[in-house]
Amino acid sequence: MSTPAPAAHKPRIDVLKTIAIYKLIKVLLLLAIAYGEVRLRDASLTAKIVNWASARPTGMEQHMVTQLLAWFTGLSTSSIHKLRILTLSYACVFAVEGMGLWMEQRWAEWLTTIVTASLIPFELWELFYRPNIGKVLVVLANVAIVAYLVWHVRHHSPLRAKPLGE
């Protein structure tokens, strides 16, 4: 009489689900940015933000808000549309990755590995020219995600042959 095989040990922290949540948080942030792009076309809202920033003590936040508004209001309509399309396209890709990983789909592991790895050179370039702690953390997180997914895909492949005798 053979004994049943032990159930596969499920880790306490499911790394794939954690990566999925990270991707879905990126989706929410990108959707908020897209919404902000639409809202900033309203001149009265832009004026309110400028007044709000001017009323704050001089500091990094005030400078950043003022710079961002000056940059955004200087964009042409076609540039704003391109920015919005790019933002929403990234949100769609991240949503597909996140939902696929959440549902433990093999294709999502491959897609996330390829897409995340392809963005790292651009993130490194941006980090090199405009370094800050946020960019360092994003690069480190994405490198860790790619490293884990490469390991996971290679060691948990459904195509791997079982050793003889199992």
How would you sum up this structure, described in words?
- By secondary structure, the chain is mainly α.
- It is 75% helix and 0% strand.
- The radius of gyration is 22 Å and the shape is elongated.
- The mean pLDDT is 82.
Distinctive features:
6 helices; 75% helix; 166 residues; single chain; mainly alpha
Write the layout of secondary structure elements.
Elements: H1 15-39, H2 43-55, H3 60-73, H4 77-102, H5 106-129, H6 133-155
Helix pairs in contact: 1-4, 2-3, 4-5, 5-6
In short:
This protein is mostly helical and 166 residues long.
Report the order of strands and helices. Answer: HHHHHH
**Basic shape:** elongated
What fraction strand?
Answer: under 5%
SS class: mainly alpha
Residue-averaged pLDDT: 82
Q: Please tell me how large the radius of gyration is.
A: 22 Å
